Amino acid sequence: MSPMDQNNQEAREPVDRDLLISRVVDDAASAQDWQQLRALAEYDPSVWRELFEAQHAQAELAQAVQQAIAIADGIDAPTQDLGGPNFRFRFRQAATWAGWAVAASVAVIWVAPHIGTPQATPVSGNQATLVPEFIQGGPSSEELTGFEAYRTPSGSRLGELASPRSMTTEPFRQASTNQQNNALATNTEHLAEMPDRELLEIRPLPNGQLEVIYVRRLIEKAVVDEGDLYQVKPDDAGIDRAVPYRQRRPSSGPI
Amino acid sequence: MKAKPQSQASVDRYRVDPALVVRATEGHAEAVQQLWQSHRRWVAAIVLAHMPREADLDDLLQDIAATFVRSVQELRTPGALRPWLRTVAINAARAEGRKKTRRRNALESQAATDPGTFQRDETPDTTAAAPESADEAQWLLDLIAQMPESYREPLVLRCVRGMNYKAISELTGLPETTIETRIARGRRMLRERVAMERDRKTGAAGASQRGVRESGANGEVNE
Fold first, then answer.
1. What residue ranges do the domains of chain B occupy?
2. What's the topology of domain B123-223?
3. Measured between CB atoms, does B178 come within 8 Å of chain A?
């Protein structure tokens, strides 16, 4: 019999002597329980003796258990082993963000050749509405050193991504031809934007406004040839390198 | 027919404070400590219900507290705290049981190969002897340890202050009616075992007294 069947069977059993006595011992007996117990005792007075013994046994057992588990009161959690306040939490968060950073790097590698040729970016019209109002009035992309802006074909800005002129994108740039760039550009599709944005910096402006620098994460889809895709992976020295992406192919099995 | 609802205060005693759990998962030492302190009693009861008779509850609780500190930050939701902590406690108790069994087997096999080195302890096992010869509380706990596991845990948990049917049901993930039934059956089993052991003791004492009287009588006759 499975444990589930056993549980169901236990629950279906009619109220009996053991259950009535147990409820009285636990001070959980209802008026109906007491009525049933009295009715039972009229035919079999030994119920009262059983009830007395059950109460006595429970008192003894409770005392024994309380005595045994009182030892727990002297055992504290060894929190001095925690690596300082919030250390592990921060470490975990950093690890999470590192994951995002790697994902962003891969995204940059995909779209790097496309930056600087904005007219080739296929974006549907309604995606331009994702840009918040204050971005429209913010500094131009030219003012943000080290950043480059995406623009829709109509010229409205979508936001900023880190400069492709980073070490990790170089191999891709060198390996890519104009023909590949065009193929990538025509196959890239903006799907959505992640709802949360990471704040990098807030700078007060002389006119009293605030300049907000933050990261927006866009979800994009691109169709590329396998030879054009690079992944960022740490080498033996722990330095991130762009390496060609290779698909895992199912093995042919034992010969 | 249902049992009369038990007091809400006792249910709330072990209720998990979500804010406290969140702080603990963020690594705040005082939150981790507070969380452990508010749950350690029932954790001890779980260990008591599952550990081998000869194990040391103190040592096991120290191990569980260390695991708690090490892993509480991996909890995803506050609701998962109690089931997770219960699993940690049960695993620790069972691991101890396996360790004891392995040690016992190793000693027995060594004794079999080299009987000169190891001599079997001929002292009788008094753990389940009558209460007069051993500590009453320990004797009861030993009797509990001989009961089926599914009855043992609810029965022991019910003895922890504030642990009523609802709280035990939430902790074990079993329906309240099942918990109630198991406690009732468990109590019946325990009463029967206690009565049997006491009868045996009384019988043995009676026989021994009769033996003394008979030998005394014989002595008188012989003399």
1. 9-121, 123-223
2. Arc Repressor Mutant, subunit A (1.10.10)
3. yes
| Cα–Cα separations (whole angstroms), residue A235 to A20, A112, A165, B121, B196 | 71, 22, 20, 61, 72
Give B-chain residues touching A79 at CB under 8 angstroms: 29-30, 32-33, 69
Mean pLDDT, all residues of chain A? 68
CATH topology classification for B9-121: Rna Polymerase Sigma Factor; Chain: A (1.10.1740)
Residue B123 DSSP label: S
For A151-160, A212-221, B38-47, B166-175, which range has the lowest pLDDT when averaged over its residues? A151-160
CA separation for the pair A152, A154 (Å, rounded):
5
Task: Using a pLDDT cut of 70, give the percent of chain B over it.
Answer: 76
> The tokens of B209 are what?
């007294």
Name the packing angle between helices A46-69 and A31-43 (round to 10°).
130
**What pTM did the predictor assign?**
0.55
Contacts of B136 in chain A (CB under 8 A): 60, 64
CA B115, chain centre distance (Å) = 34
